[in-house]
């Protein structure tokens, strides 16, 4: 539980200086960072288009939660057709390396997106999908050039921490491109995808047809309630226009608050470590990834040897950064700020 709980404990660490937007997504960061900086002074990084999504609501929803309200997605606080909430969520491990995997597809559609350190300065996303009408996005896939026609991907292997995250979404399905023999037994309700082309490491993913065929457990939406959604900034929030996390020279990520879009834009440094950070886009929309809430957290992390199941020897505990991107109106009080009310 360490991965998620640490995010909830220290989530009240960023507060945007403007009112939240009607649409909402949350990003949770959970990496081992060498350097982390948050600033209320703009830096010399590019500004991006604030073009809203065509599916964005036109008015800010009323405050809701932590109790469940019919017709409200308990993961986002946004109005939804209740019929879409009757199947449990599914979580997908989406790669961020190699650079050829970018731009990924489907991150902008997720209710919550977790980003975790997985080794050697690399990170991996775990996207949470609940209550979406995927037929709408199948039409988009028919109109643009998507590798293998994937609405979500590229998908890569699982990690033990993904089970910690999955457990916060009762009966959720965890989709990965398999996992190592030591890790796979630790993952529950896990579904393995395979490469569609053995010569292409980025060829595992989910098409509309594959999403439609997923077998998911019946869900009671009230099981996913617990977050408080309110458009008012939290009283203890601290303004933060920029957040930068440096894993190593070749893995530097940031978030910049866009006052026009009233969201944080995800930025990523070039793979060679040279030049300014640039927006990371979603292949489905061609638009930069933007999130209403960014939840960074610090936790303790213990490195275990390969034979961790049979050995009590561990290396020293180190500081780990964890962070969440999510889709909430403000599962925290307002975009980017974040004091989860659970």
Describe this structure in words.
Helices cover 9% and strands 25% of the residues. The strands form 2 sheets. Strands 1, 3, 4, 5, 6, 7, 13 and 14 form an 8-stranded mixed β-sheet that branches. The chain has helices at residues 2-9, 134-143, 160-166, 208-212, and strands at 26-30, 35-39, 90-95, 112-119, 122-129, 173-176, 190-192, 242-248, 251-258, 263-268, 278-279, 290-291, 293-302, 317-326. It is mainly beta and 342 residues long. The protein has one domain (2-48, 59-326): YerB-like fold (3-Layer(bba) Sandwich), CATH 3.50.90.
How many independent structural domains? 1
Mean pLDDT over the full residue set: 77
- Write down how many β-strands occur, each being a DSSP E stretch of 2 or more residues: 14
CATH architecture: 3-Layer(bba) Sandwich
The CATH class is identified as: Alpha Beta
Structural class label: mainly beta
Strand content: 15-25%
Rg (C-alpha, Å): 19 Å
Shape: globular
* CATH fold-level name: YerB-like fold
What is the terminal separation in angstroms? 15 Å
Q: What composes the largest sheet?
A: 8 strands, mixed
Helix content: under 10%
Number of helical regions: 4
Low-confidence sequence ranges: 1-22, 41-58, 307-322, 327-342
- Element-level helix/strand string: HEEEEEHHEEHEEEEEEE
């Amino acid at each position: 539980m360490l991965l998620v709980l640490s995010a909830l404990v220290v989530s009240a660490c960023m507060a945007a200086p403007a009112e939240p937007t009607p649409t909402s997504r949350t990003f949770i960061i959970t990496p081992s960072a060498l350097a982390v900086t948050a600033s209320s002074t703009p830096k010399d990084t590019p500004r991006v288009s604030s073009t809203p999504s065509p599916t964005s609501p036109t008015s800010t929803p009323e405050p809701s939660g932590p109790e469940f309200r019919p017709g409200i997605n308990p993961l986002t606080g946004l109005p939804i057709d209740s019929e879409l909430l009757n199947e449990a969520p599914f979580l997908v491990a989406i790669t961020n390396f190699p650079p050829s995997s970018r731009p990924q597809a489907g991150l902008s559609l997720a209710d919550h997106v977790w980003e975790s350190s997985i080794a050697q300065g690399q990170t991996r996303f775990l996207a949470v999908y609940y209550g979406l009408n995927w037929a709408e996005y199948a039409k988009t896939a028919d109109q643009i050039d998507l590798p293998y026609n994937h609405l979500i991907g590229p998908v890569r292997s699982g990690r033990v921490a993904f089970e910690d995250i999955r457990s916060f979404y009762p009966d959720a399905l965890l989709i990965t491109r398999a996992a190592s023999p030591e890790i796979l037994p630790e993952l529950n309700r896990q579904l393995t995808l395979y490469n569609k082309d053995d010569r292409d490491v980025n060829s595992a993913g989910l098409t509309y047809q594959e999403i439609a065929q997923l077998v998911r457990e019946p869900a009671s939406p009230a099981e996913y309630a617990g977050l408080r959604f309110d458009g008012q900034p939290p009283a203890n929030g601290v303004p933060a226009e920029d957040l930068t996390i440096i894993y190593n020279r070749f893995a530097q990520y940031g978030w910049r608050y866009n006052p026009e879009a009233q969201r944080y834009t995800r930025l990523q440094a070039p793979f060679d470590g040279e030049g300014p950070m640039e927006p990371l886009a979603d292949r489905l929309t061609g638009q930069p990834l933007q999130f209403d809430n960014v939840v960074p957290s610090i936790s303790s992390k213990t490195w275990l040897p390969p034979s961790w199941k049979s050995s009590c020897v561990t290396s020293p505990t180190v500081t780990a950064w964890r962070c969440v991107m999510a889709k909430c109106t403000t599962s925290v009080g307002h975009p980017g700020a974040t004091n989860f009310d659970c």
